[in-house]
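Probable phosphoglycerate mutase: structure tokens wanted.
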Amino acid sequence: MKKTLFIIRHGETDLNKRGVVQGRGMDTNLNDHGRAQAEAFYQAYKDVPFDKIYTSTLKRTHQTVKQFIDSNIPWTQYPGLDELGWGIYEGLESNDQIKNEFVNILGKWSAGELHHKFDKGESPLEVKERQLTVLEKLIEVNDDKNILICMHGRALRLFLCLLTNKPLTEMDSFPHLNTTLYKVEFDGKDFHIVDFNNTDHLKSLPIRFE
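Answer:
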């Protein structure tokens, strides 16, 4: 049975704005701009007849799709959709040392060393393993036609690799901003991206000068 997935990243938080490392262990709220992004997405897609909403367990995803949830669409939280855990670097202000550590580990992942992770963090392979639970729900035979999924930046990249059968080493081929939309169709066998990194709904927001 054909299904359409509307997969978005959560709206902006103050830690996003400040460039602070924000992973699975940081349960932060949307800021004013993030709430405006969520509202803009809602206005653009409120007429889509969503059958289900899937989010991570973190409140920034709940807040992003709150208006859809409040319209009584069935909603499930999945730990599999949580952000990758960045371990000891979560909550830290970015500096040259941290930037170098991230460049180093992202380089390892691109080279296929997907088991690497920061101390107390997660590897891409571990995130993929917990995302498989969500994939199993998506391919179930049921009456769901339109599913709204709200998750996180790095996890989103890994999830799109999983859905489209791309190697995880190509995760960075999926760019994103806050509330970026990837629209993905499932034909009963395979997933196909039909709308790539769509941010058209954000054009309604005023330009910020910071």
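The first helix runs from residue 14 to 18. The chain has one domain: 3-85+125-204.

Cheers.
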